[in-house]
Amino acid sequence: MPRAFIQSTSLLCTYLATAPRSTPFSNSPKRKSSIIPNASLTKTEIETVEQLSNDIIDPNSTSEEGENENILSEQMMRRRIALSKAITLVESKSANRRLMGDILLDRLRQSTRNKVKPKDKKCRVPFRLGIAGPPGAGKSTFVEALGLYILGLKENSSTSDLTVEVNNLSQNSTPRTESTSVFAPEKLAVLCIDPSSQVTGGSILGDKTRMSNLSHHPRAYVRPSPSSGTLGGLGSYTHDAVSLCEMAGYDLTIVETVGVGQSEVELAECVDMFLLLLAPGGGDELQGSKKGIVEVADVLVVNKADGEYEKVAKKTASEYKKAMGLLRKPVGWWGKKSSESDGCSKENGAIDCAPAAPPVLLISAKTGFGLEELWQTISKYREFTNSSGNVIEKRKKQNRYWMWKYLRERVLETAKNNPRVKSRADDIEKCLDEGLMAPRVAAGELWKSIVYQGDEKSE
């Protein structure tokens, strides 16, 4: 491995084993930081991290009865500005700013970790809703319509959960009415991922323009970010941006991906619920049976069920409902079918019920049709994942996924910036150009020069 990478890894291991109980970035004497102190940060940069951290989790930012509205507005604006600056830090490719982002994330994580207790099933962790779909499905219009509907719930309620009567989600049975809590968050954040140009590297970031009403709502935070050439529908550091929004007090974070295809499913590693938005005429029953993005979706929504597209939208939803019955979701994914009328099999007097298929719903972001039923469905899913503890287990798996992804990116970046590796890469590329070596073999040769670099220098 490159010497710089080996040294930094060794330093990390040494520090984690001997880290002191307190650091300059701690308010608690019992806190242990996992970030290596780095002298390359200036005093101003360290103070910036401190200020951003204090503004994001300011204990005085919570409203109290009788408190001056101007003071509350000022505190809210300060937190929003700090959140925007923090997301810019974690998205930066500058080495110093990246280190500042690492320290900020670590400090915020340590400050908020006691707020979520995984063993307490009554604990409600902030909810992450991911929305993906092909280009032209109306994702931005849908996100704005859904966001305004959600914020309207809170205006008519004094609590974050409303108890209402909703229909059972089983698709093959007559609807049954049951009581559930409808999630009504105080405020929400929306992270929009916009595609970056493969030619110039730039991005229009136009999704926020489509959400003008939601962007101006005082209890909504809308942040567009470029994909920066990353495949999968997300940006390189979307997971960190979601974490920052939660630490800033947003109970609901909506992630809207770029227009995606069948194989771009990375959103499932970043959110609690994966919503696939489809356009009318987007596929038949065979299309819905294909593996990929349809397979990982937790709920499918056919948009534009209005006007001349209404009949086509209903047909599309019908085709996908047939296909969803063939999917095999893991046990404990989201409730179960409850009776023979739902499609359960009965053997020896016992009813064997497989996990229910993902629901397929019709909505119109333009008219608002179907939004109430959709949000009730999402609320039911959230209630189940919280009560069962599934959301905690899912977050653990997602954290491990992103750890390995960030490691791959760091190793690749370190290798590309190493002079010796770059020189060896130039020689191998010449062999590629002359047809003397296959790309697969070339990659193996380059990897050998990285792995055995330390041994060669020590000989």
Low-confidence stretches: 1-31, 118-122, 166-178, 338-343
| Molecular shape | globular
Order of helices and strands: HHHHEHEEEHHEHEEHHEHEEEHHHHH
Largest sheet: 7 strands, parallel
- Average pLDDT for all residues: 77
Strand content: 5-15%
Structural notes for this entry:
The chain is an alpha/beta fold. Helix content is 46%, strand content 14%. It contains 16 helices and eleven strands. The strands form three sheets. The chain has a seven-stranded parallel beta sheet with strand order 5-4-6-1-7-8-11, sandwiched between helices. Strands 2-3 form a two-stranded antiparallel sheet. It has a two-stranded antiparallel ribbon with strand order 9-10. A hairpin with a 2-residue loop joins strand 9 and strand 10. Helix 2 crosses helix 3 and helix 4 (95-112) packs across helix 8 (238-247). The radius of gyration is 25 Å and the shape is globular. The model is unreliable at 1-31, 118-122, 166-178 and 338-343 (pLDDT under 50).
How are the SSEs ordered, and which strands pair?
Blueprint: H1 3-18, H2 43-56, H3 69-91, H4 95-112, E1 127-133, H5 139-155, E2 161-167, E3 177-183, E4 188-194, H6 207-210, H7 212-215, E5 220-226, H8 238-247, E6 252-259, E7 273-278, H9 285-289, H10 293-296, E8 299-302, H11 310-324, E9 345-347, E10 350-352, E11 360-362, H12 371-388, H13 390-417, H14 419-433, H15 439-451, H16 453-458
Helix pairs in contact: 2-3, 2-4, 3-4, 3-8, 4-8, 14-15
Quickly describe the structure:
This protein is an alpha/beta fold and 459 residues long. The chain has helices at 3-18, 43-56, 69-91, 95-112, 139-155, 207-210, 212-215, 238-247, 285-289, 293-296, 310-324, 371-388, 390-417, 419-433, 439-451, 453-458; strands spanning 127-133, 161-167, 177-183, 188-194, 220-226, 252-259, 273-278, 299-302, 345-347, 350-352, 360-362. Helix 2 (43-56) packs parallel to helix 4 and helix 14 (419-433) packs antiparallel against helix 15 (439-451).
